[in-house]
Amino acid sequence: MFLYPYKIFALSKNKILFNKDNPLRKRGIYDVESMNYNTALESKEKITDSCISVLLGEVRPGVYLNVWDLDDCFNDNGELEEETKELLDLFDDSEWEVSSRGKGIHIYTLTRKKYQTFMPKGFKGCKKAFEFYADKRHIVTTTFDFMNTDLKIGKYDDLLDSIYEEYLSTQEKPSMTEMVKEVFEGQIDNDMSKARGAILGREPVTDMYKLRGCGYKDERLIELIDADPSSVDQSAWDCSLIAKLCYYALSYEGAWELATKTNYYKAKDEKHKKKFNNPAYRERTNNYIKKGRY
Q: What separation, in Å, do the N-terminal and C-terminal C-alpha atoms of the chain show?
């Protein structure tokens, strides 16, 4: 499947998406201006130091573009590590590129399965955690030939399934309830954020820049803040989002305020935004979280 005709490309600087007509404004996945590859190339030539990014996820109905992001793939002499070579032997040369910093590898695959982003450690072929990005992300491209590469849909599904099953078998999964209660020492109230901050030795997170920095390796958090609300049970995801944000904001009120800055909230329709902001709904959601009923 050729990718370049589809509007899945955007412009970025320093790995931040931006509007080509207003480069100073940072953009989220949902409000970024996506372009076909030819248009992106033309725009890149007019904007100094810009890069072309490809938006991951559904590129056409039922077909998903994913990327395998491998770090530390080269030795001190700039040569591919032997394990990396062994892994890349499983793929065609036209299916991968060297990352923008010259240290890692991006492998592109297409599938009809809706995988989740996951990061197994100790994966053969990379020194650090192997990162598989499935959706709601963008990757800065370098030499990948989007004009001519014909990626095969589902070609690596069996390999991905086996890696994902191995990853799941190594994961300890404490519930969000346990996580929140541990941080809040068994209590969840609205007026103790300063006290909690003093105990934990950190300030409440109030903006998305800091939140993304804190949650870079927190797969569930990134999934929640960038989710497409039209494709999930919003009440359940509201609960999960607020429970996660309590950890970072250190209070319910702070969590609700931070939630309104996420792509997930911004992409809600007006009806669901009104519901989200309703005090009665907030109180009901908080009660569910306290009781672990989400």
A: 40
Main-chain dihedrals φ then ψ at residue 147, nearest 5 degrees: -75, -30
Judge contact between 35 and 10, C-beta under 8 A.
yes
- Kindly report whether the global pTM for this prediction surpasses the value 0.85: no
pLDDT above 90: residue 170 = no
Question: How many CB atoms are located within 10 Å of the residue 149 CB?
Answer: 17
What's the rounded Cα separation, in Å, for the pair 43 and 52? 9
Could you tell me the residue range of the domain that residue 39 belongs to? 9-169
Using the 3D structure, point to which of 169, 190, 205 is the last residue of a domain. Answer: 169
Tens of pLDDT, residue by residue over 100-109, are 888 899 999 9
Cα–Cα distance for residue pair 233/236, rounded to 1 Å: 6
CB 73 within 8 A of CB 105: yes
Residue 3 lies in a domain: no
Shared domain check, 206 and 141: no
Whether the CB-CB separation of 167 and 120 falls below 8 Å is answered with: yes
Choose the final residue of a domain: 169, 203, 232: 169
| Cα distance between residue 203 and residue 119, in whole Å | 28
Is the same domain home to 77 and 164?
yes
Return the closest-CA partner of residue 284 out of 220, 236, 245. Answer: 236
Joined tokens for residue 12: 């970025």
Return phi, psi of residue 26, to 5°.
-75, 145
- Say which amino acid occupies 36: N
